[in-house]
Amino acid sequence: MEQHPANPYYSRTDTTILHVSDAEWKKVLPDSVYWIAREKGTERAFTGRYWDFEGLGTYYCAVCGNPLFRSDAKFGSSCGWPSFFEAIRPNSVRYQRDTSYGMDRTEVLCGRCGSHLGHVFDDGPPPTGKRFCMNSVVLEFEPDRK
Ligand code: FE
After folding, report:
1. Pick from 39, 23, 22: nearest CA to 100
2. Which of 61, 64, 133, 138 places its Cα 20 to 30 Å from the Cα of 30?
3. Which domains does the chain have, with CATH numbers?
């Protein structure tokens, strides 16, 4: 399990909704995570650690430790970002309309800490038809124990 000594809000078991200011997150998160999670940045396609990754396990929020996705909902997408057809639980993520950059998209936020994770589109595979297009930087993969 990854250790987060600098981040007192990180927990894989505490489901308390977090209300933490960006100034505070800035102090406890690596710059790369802060930029995507709190400034809604996007990693360059085909550069993240998970777009092409097929391990069996669980993906957690890299900001707060909230469980987000299971590997069995991940699918090979040619878009260059890790893609899932559903979240691990309905309330593990939240949604918000995003009209930035002249597009009309649905932003996906962590259900616990409210951090930006990516966007969801309607061109995914069965059974949901959804494509959760996520940034690897804000995900942490934990393999299943044998
Ligand atoms: Fe989170």
Report:
1. 39
2. 133
3. 22-143 (2.170.150.20)
